[in-house]
Design goal:
two-stranded parallel sheet; two-stranded parallel ribbon; globular; alpha/beta; 2 helices
Length: 86
């Protein structure tokens, strides 16, 4: 994961630890997520009224989720991918 971070940057993950790269001054940060209904409601409101924009690079059917994970593992995803239900 840290290979996608610019020299001197920070790689952040909520999925688990990421190795740091001291030679490139790349640091790692672990994020912890907690459900908060009021906060999620505010985020939805910001998306709805345009104050928060999310870049979605692709929308793919949920049946392709395995391929999406394979693409992610090989670095072939250019941004967020949304899995759509039939």
């Amino acid at each position: 994961m840290s290979r996608y971070v610019a020299d001197g940057g920070v790689a952040a993950s909520a999925a688990g630890p990421i190795p740091e790269e001291p030679a490139r001054s790349v640091r790692a940060a672990s994020l912890f997520v907690r459900g908060d209904a009021a906060q999620l409601t505010e985020l939805v409101a910001r998306v709805d009224d345009g104050r928060l924009r999310i870049h979605i690079a692709a929308r793919r059917p949920v049946a392709e989720s395995r391929a999406v994970h394979e693409d992610a593992a090989t670095g072939r995803l250019p941004g967020k991918t949304v899995l759509t239900a039939p």
